[in-house]
Amino acid sequence: MSFFDTSYSVIIPSRHGSFYSEWQNCLDQLNALSINYITRIFKINIFISSISQTEFRTRKEFITEAILKTFGNDCPAFGVLAIFPEEQFHATIEAGLVKLSGEDLYFRRYNDLPYSVLVKNKYKELWVNGIEVRSETADTENVSKEAFDLMHKILLKEDMTFDNIVRQWNYIGNILNAGQNNNELVQNYQVFNKVRFEYYHKYKLIPGYPAATGVGMNYRGIMIDLYAIEPTEEMQIISVGNPQQINPYHYDQIVLSDSLPSCKIEKHPPLFERAKLLARGGIWQLLVSGTASIIGQETTNSGSLLEQTRTTIDNIEKLVSHGNLRLYYPQIVDKTLVSYKRIRVYVKNISDVAMVKPLCTEYFGNIPSVYIQSHICRTNLLIEIEAELNSGKTD
């Protein structure tokens, strides 16, 4: 078996209070989770409120010190993001857990960045959160290049390349804002896509791209999380398309222009797959990219949050359907087993969580779910949902 028995836990404060009291409450819960003798934490995402660069940096440094003190030499991959949690909380944690049944879990560091490695026989997983290079200027192009350079160095340290990345999370500060480039206004997301294009084409040797999410954060700069694997010979890694959507790397220039149609600079498409299927023997795992209300390549239901939510869920339903998955992996035989492991829901306006949560719960069920505020990659998109599915049966 190639896959580890992983699960997720979402931690929110038990009551409202100051940032520091809410954070301490979350940390206490995380610490209780960490001393469980059945599972161990291999990754942590921490979402916090902040109203300024200075406040975020201060809070992040405080949290980082607390996490390093709590876990010591056994510190898993973790990242702190300036993304507002739901219910007007100051902090929310999403933790990834792995069952202990003989697997090897290693905690390593590149400089001062902790990351996690899981190894079993010839199979290996690498989890890295919070990849960033602090810059006072926070020039999107430069900090993007520095972040990708850091990714490259960590991958090389683990004898991996960009071809090993199966899932990537890209957090872009002020994602929809534009800056000057050769006397033209260029959106920060487009700048990031240009850098991603350059690094993928420099370091990737095999076709296809990772599954990915690309959203904004309330902090200048770039932060990246990644999940990479060294597969066994029997394992298949398959890019899965959505029957209702064009692959994002085929978007045309008109769609890529978004709110800046006058910009004449060539715009690079976002290089990611709609989903990534990992399959071996009798099991499979599906990593669903950030998905929005897009049919073909066009945004639909602009201005209607509920309709965008329904279309987004419908897109995911079509993607994970038995009929669609069999097009890419015919060995899948179980027509009814679609079991979600977790979801993360990004909404443009945090007050909208109350409207979308019942719809998401109705479809996905009572599973670990994170609802957070973030600008999506298009000005007319109000919601984005990512998901991960449990293993299913094959022939």
Report Rg.
20 Å
Low-confidence stretches: none
Identify the CATH class: Alpha Beta
Percentage of helical residues?
A: 25-40%
- Give the name of the CATH architecture: 2-Layer Sandwich
| Whole-number total of structural domains | 1
Reading side by side through the largest sheet, how are the strands ordered?
A: 5-6-7-12-8-11
Backbone shape: globular
> CATH superfamily assignment?
RutC-like
Helix and strand pattern: EHEHEEEEEHEEEHEEEHEEEEHHEHEE
What is the count of helical runs?
8
Q: Quote the CATH topology.
A: 60s Ribosomal Protein L30, Chain: A
Give the averaged pLDDT, no decimals. 92
Terminal residue distance:
15 Å
- Output the structural class: alpha+beta
Q: Largest sheet, if any?
A: 6 strands, mixed
Count of DSSP strands = 20
> Hey, roughly how much beta strand do the residues contain?
25-35%
